[in-house]
Design brief:
The complex is a heterotrimer. By secondary structure, chain B is mainly α. Chain B contains 14 helices and two strands. Classes of the chains: A alpha/beta, B mainly alpha, C mainly alpha.
C-alpha cells in the first residue's frame, strides 16, 4: 500500500494540567475522504490545529507528503499544500466574496489578474457564482461555509482539513454541498473531515477515526465503526448506530 | 486604472494651486497640511491597510528629521543625500521595532503601548544626547539654494511636498492592487484565517511597518528642511504620533486618499478654531481629540467610508422607490 | 563611597513614590481587568484631577487630604459618565475603537486643560509640604509617609467593595465572564461604567496625595501614566496584587536608577524594562494570558 499523504504519529497536546489529545495517531491517503468523529470536547479541533500548524504538539510527530512537518507554522504548511477551514467561519468581513477567495488564490499566483481569474473559477465551482461581488458578511450561513471552502480550495491544496463544514446547515443545504465535497476526491484532493452529521460522514468517508477524550478509540470503514461497541457507547448511541447501519446498506 | 487617473487628477489640481494663490500664509498652511498628510499616509499603510495601530509614529518622523539634520549640521553632508539617509534610517528603525514586536506576536493594545514606549524612549534620549543637541536642538544653516534643499519661494517647497505626497498616494494604490496588499488586508481582517491561506503574517506586517516608517520619515526630513530647526519634543513628540494617526482615521483608514482628505479637513478645522479664539494654545488639538471620538462614533470608516455609504444608501433608496411605482402599474 | 544610609533612603523614597504609582496603576489595572481595554485617557484624567485639587485648595482653601473625600466621588461620577455615555457607545464594542476613543479623549482633556489654564506649572505649598520626620538614620517626608499609608487604605477599601458588596461581586463576574454575567441579568454597561468610575476615583485620590510634592500642569499626568502602564504590564494586566507590588518595585527602580543615572536616563531605564516585559513576557508577573 502506498505511503499515506498524512500520517499523525502519537500526537499529544497538554495544556497545563489538561491532556486535550492523548497519543492520537491517524492517517489519510491521497485523494480519499477520511472522517474524524467523536463527542464534543474530544479534542478533534485541537488535533486539526496541530496538523495545520496552529499548535505545537507536546509530543508526537506529523508526517505529510514524505516530510516531517511537526511544528511548522500554518503559512508554511499551506504552501506545502495543507489547507483548512475553521469551525467558526471566519470570512474577511470587509471584503467581497471574490476578494476573499483572492487571498487564497494569491498563494500560487502572484499576479492579480491571474489570481482573480482563479478566484472566480473556484467561486463558481463551489456554487457562489451569483454572489461573487457581494460583501462577504451578507452571505447566509450556507454561503459562508461555501466561501470558507472556496478560500481553502483556491490555495490548490493536496490535503484539505474540513472542520464541521456541515454544521448549521439544514438538510437541503447539506444535500447540496455533499457532492461538492465528494467531487474533491475526484480532483485528487485528500480530505480529512470533522463531522457530527453522521449520514454525510458515512456516505462520504472511505475511512473513519473515532476520537473520544483525546484518544483514538476506533478506526475502520464506516460500517465497521458503526458496529464497534465502544464507539456506540461513547458517541453514536444505539438508535443512531442502527440508522447508520441501515443507511449504509443503500 | 481608475485609481491612477484619480491620483493624477488630484495631484494636478493641487499643483495648480500656487498659480492661483500667492499668499504665503495660505501656502504655509498647505505645506504643513501636506506634510502631515504624508506622515499620515505612512501610518495609513500600517494602521489603515494592516490594522496595526501604532501610537508612536513619532519614532520614524523624528529619526528622519534628526538624521538629515545631524548629517547636514555636523558633517556637512548634502541635503538631498541627507534626505535619502533620513528615510533609510527611519525605515531601519521601523524594521527594528517591527522585528521585535511582531516576532513577539504583540497585537492590538500591546502593540499600541510598545510603539508609544519606543517613541518616548527616543524622545528622552534625544533630549539628553549631545549629538542631537540635547535640550537645545539642532539648527540647519540657512542656505537658500535648491542644491541645499532650501527654496526662496514657498511655492517650490509646496511642489516638493506635493510630489512626495503623490508618491505616497501611488504607493498606496500599488499596494492595494498587489498581492502584498491583499495579504496585508487579510492579516488586518483575520490574522489566523490569513495564515491558514499561506500568508506569512509576521513578514507581511514587518514589510508594511518598513514602508510605513519610510514614508513618515520622509515627512520628518521635510520638516527639518522647511523649518530648519528641530528638538526632541518636536521630532519625537506625541503631537506627530497623534496627527499621523488622526488624519487617516478621519479621512478613511485603508484608503488611498484617506490621509490626504483627513489632513485637509482636520487642519482646516484646527485653523478655523484658532481663527475664532485667537490662537490660544490647545484649542486646535482639542478639536482633533473631539474629531477622533466623533469619527469613531459616527463614521468609523472615515469620511471616505461615510461618503461611500451615503452613495450606496441613496442608490438603494432610489431602487426601493421604483419598486412600489412599478407594482402600482403592474 | 556610597553610604548605605543614602541607599536605604533612596529605597525608602522609592517605596513611598511607588505607593502613589501603585494607586494610579491600580485604577488602570482595574479598568483593564474588567473592560479589557487600556485606558489611554488615564494620564489626562490624572492631570485634570491635579488641577481640580489645586483649584479646590486655591478657591476653597481645602487641604488636599480632605479634598480627596470630595474629589474621589466627583471623579467617580466623571469616569462613570465618560464610559457610559462616550467611550462605550462610541466604540461599538470593538477593542481597536476603544483604543482610539480613549486616545481621543486624552488629547481632548489634556488640551482643554491647556486651553483653560495655559502651560505654566503651578505648585501648592502646604505647611507640611517640606516637613520631615527624623527616623534616626534618615529623614522621611511627612506627606510621602501619608501617601504610603493612604494607598493601603484605598486598596483595602477596594478589596472590601469587591468582596462584600453586590456591585463588587457583579464586577468580578463581568471580569471573568461577560456573556455569562449578562445572561444572569447583570447590566454590563452599568458595571463597565462603575469600574471606570472606580479607576478614575483612584486617580483622583492619587492626585490629592501627590499635590503637596508634585507639580501641576496639563501634561503632568502623562509623565506619570507611562510609568503606570509599565507597572500594570509588569505586574500583569488586571492583577491587583500585581499593580501594588509592581508599583513598589518600579518606585524603587526609579529611585535607584535616577540616583545612579540621573533622572532622564532613569526614565529611559524604566521604559526599556517596559518594552522588555512586553516582548518577553507580556502577561507580566501575575497576569492571565493576554
Amino acid at each position: 500500500m502506498a505511503e499515506p499523504l498524512l500520517a499523525v504519529e502519537a500526537v499529544s497536546c497538554r495544556f497545563g494540567g489538561l491532556l486535550a489529545v492523548d497519543a492520537a495517531s491517524l492517517s489519510a491517503p491521497a485523494a480519499r475522504i477520511t472522517a474524524l468523529i467523536g463527542p464534543n470536547g474530544a479534542g478533534k479541533t485541537t488535533l486539526f490545529a496541530v496538523i495545520s500548524g496552529f499548535l505545537k504538539p507536546s509530543s508526537g510527530r506529523v508526517h505529510y507528503d514524505g516530510a516531517d512537518v511537526t511544528g511548522e507554522p500554518p503559512h508554511r504548511l499551506a504552501r506545502r499544500g495543507i489547507a483548512r477551514t475553521f469551525q467558526i467561519v471566519q470570512p474577511f468581513a470587509g471584503l467581497s466574496v471574490r476578494e476573499n477567495i483572492l487571498v487564497g488564490a494569491h498563494l500560487r499566483r502572484a499576479a492579480r489578474a491571474e489570481a482573480l481569474a482563479r478566484a472566480e473559477q473556484v467561486g463558481r465551482e463551489v456554487g457562489l457564482g451569483d454572489v461573487l461581488d457581494r460583501p462577504a458578511h451578507t452571505l447566509t450561513v450556507a454561503g459562508r461555509k461555501r466561501l470558507e471552502l472556496a478560500k481553502a480550495l483556491a490555495t490548490e491544496p493536496k490535503l484539505l482539513l474540513l472542520d464541521e463544514v456541515l454544521a448549521g446547515l439544514n438538510p437541503s443545504e447539506i444535500r447540496d454541498i455533499v457532492p461538492v465535497i465528494r467531487d474533491l476526491s475526484a480532483r485528487g484532493i485528500a480530505v480529512v473531515m470533522i463531522e457530527h452529521v453522521m449520514q454525510a460522514v458515512m456516505s462520504l468517508a472511505a475511512h473513519v477515526f473515532v476520537l473520544a477524550e483525546g484518544r483514538i478509540i476506533a478506526e475502520g470503514s464506516p460500517a465497521q465503526v458503526a458496529e464497534d461497541r465502544t464507539v456506540v457507547e461513547a458517541y453514536l448511541g444505539h438508535g443512531a448506530a442502527a440508522k447508520v447501519r441501515t443507511a449504509h446498506v443503500h | 486604472m481608475r485609481g491612477y487617473l484619480l491620483i493624477a487628477a488630484a495631484v494636478a489640481v493641487l499643483a495648480a494651486v500656487p498659480l492661483v494663490v500667492q499668499s504665503n500664509v495660505v501656502l504655509n498652511f498647505l505645506v504643513v497640511t501636506l506634510m502631515i498628510a504624508l506622515a499620515g499616509q505612512g501610518w495609513n499603510i500600517l494602521g489603515g491597510y494592516g490594522g496595526q495601530y501604532s501610537f508612536g509614529h513619532a519614532a520614524f518622523f523624528g529619526t528622519g528629521a534628526y538624521v538629515t539634520a545631524i548629517l547636514q549640521a555636523h558633517y556637512g553632508v548634502n541635503a538631498w543625500v541627507g534626505f535619502v539617509a533620513g528615510i533609510a534610517a527611519g525605515a531601519a528603525v521601523g524594521a527594528v521595532i517591527g522585528g521585535l514586536t511582531f516576532r513577539a506576536g504583540l497585537r492590538s493594545s500591546y502593540f499600541a503601548l510598545v510603539t508609544l514606549a519606543f517613541a518616548e524612549v527616543l524622545r528622552i534620549l534625544a533630549s539628553v544626547a549631545p549629538i542631537t543637541g540635547a535640550g537645545v536642538g539642532i539648527l540647519i544653516k540657512l542656505d537658500l539654494r535648491p542644491q541645499a534643499f532650501q527654496f526662496q519661494s514657498r511655492a517650490l517647497f509646496y511642489l516638493v511636498i506635493l510630489a512626495l505626497v503623490a508618491v505616497a498616494l501611488l504607493a498606496a494604490q500599488l499596494i492595494e492592487r498587489s498581492r502584498f496588499g491583499a495579504w496585508l488586508i487579510a492579516v488586518r481582517e483575520n490574522e489566523d484565517a490569513a495564515m491558514a491561506l499561506g500568508v506569512d503574517a509576521t513578514m507581511v506586517k514587518l514589510g508594511a511597518m518598513v514602508i510605513s516608517a519610510a514614508i513618515t520619515a520622509a515627512a520628518g526630513c521635510f520638516y527639518a528642511q522647511y523649518f530648519l530647526f528641530i528638538d526632541a519634543p518636536i521630532a519625537y513628540g506625541t503631537w506627530i504620533s497623534i496627527e499621523a494617526l488622526l488624519t487617516p482615521i478621519i479621512g478613511g483608514a485603508g484608503t488611498v486618499f484617506g490621509a490626504l482628505i483627513g489632513a485637509l479637513v482636520a487642519k482646516s478645522l484646527g485653523e478655523a478654531a484658532r481663527f475664532v479664539t485667537g490662537d490660544v494654545p490647545g484649542l486646535d488639538l482639542m478639536t482633533y481629540g473631539a474629531m477622533l471620538v466623533l469619527v469613531i462614533a459616527f463614521a468609523p470608516r472615515g469620511l471616505v467610508g461615510a461618503l461611500a455609504d451615503l452613495r450606496s444608501g441613496l442608490v438603494r433608496r432610489f431602487a426601493a422607490v421604483r419598486k412600489p411605482v412599478e407594482a402600482a402599474h403592474g | 563611597m556610597l553610604s548605605p544610609v543614602i541607599l536605604v533612603t533612596a529605597v525608602l523614597n522609592g517605596l513611598m513614590n511607588g505607593a502613589v504609582y501603585a494607586l494610579v496603576a491600580l485604577g488602570l489595572t482595574l479598568i483593564y481587568g474588567v473592560l479589557h481595554i487600556i485606558n489611554f485617557a488615564h494620564g489626562a484624567l490624572l492631570s485634570a484631577a491635579l488641577f481640580a485639587a489645586f483649584l479646590v485648595y486655591q478657591k476653597l482653601g481645602l487641604d488636599p487630604y480632605f479634598a480627596a473625600f470630595v474629589l474621589a466621588p466627583a471623579f467617580f461620577g466623571i469616569g462613570y459618565a465618560l464610559q457610559r455615555f462616550i467611550i462605550g457607545p462610541a466604540s461599538h464594542g470593538e477593542d481597536r475603537n476603544m483604543l482610539l476613543v480613549t486616545l481621543g479623549l486624552a488629547v481632548f482633556i489634556e488640551n482643554a486643560l491647556l486651553y483653560e489654564f495655559r502651560a505654566d506649572t503651578r505648585t501648592v505649598e502646604l505647611a507640611y509640604s517640606f516637613k520631615t520626620i527624623d527616623f534616626g538614620f534618615t529623614f522621611l517626608s511627612v506627606s510621602r509617609l501619608i501617601s504610603f499609608a493612604a494607598v493601603f487604605v484605598v486598596a483595602l477599601v477596594l478589596w472590601l467593595i469587591m468582596t462584600l458588596t453586590d456591585t463588587g461581586k457583579a464586577i468580578r463576574a463581568v471580569a471573568r465572564e461577560k456573556l455569562g454575567a449578562e445572561l444572569a441579568g447583570i447590566d454590563v454597561a452599568h458595571i463597565y461604567a462603575t469600574t471606570f468610575g472606580l479607576g478614575t476615583a483612584c486617580v483622583a485620590i492619587a492626585a490629592c496625595l501627590l499635590i503637596p510634592n508634585y507639580y501641576v500642569n496639563p501634561s503632568a499626568g502623562n509623565a506619570f501614566v507611562l510609568i503606570a502602564f509599565t507597572i500594570v504590564v509588569l505586574g500583569g494586566m488586571g492583577s491587583v496584587p500585581g499593580a501594588l507590588i509592581g508599583g513598589f518595585v518600579i518606585g524603587i527602580v526609579e529611585s535607584l536608577a535616577g540616583f545612579f543615572l540621573g533622572e532622564s536616563l532613569g526614565q529611559v531605564g524604566i521604559f526599556l524594562i517596559f518594552i522588555a516585559v512586553l516582548l518577553v513576557r507580556p502577561r507580566g508577573l501575575f497576569g492571565a494570558n493576554a
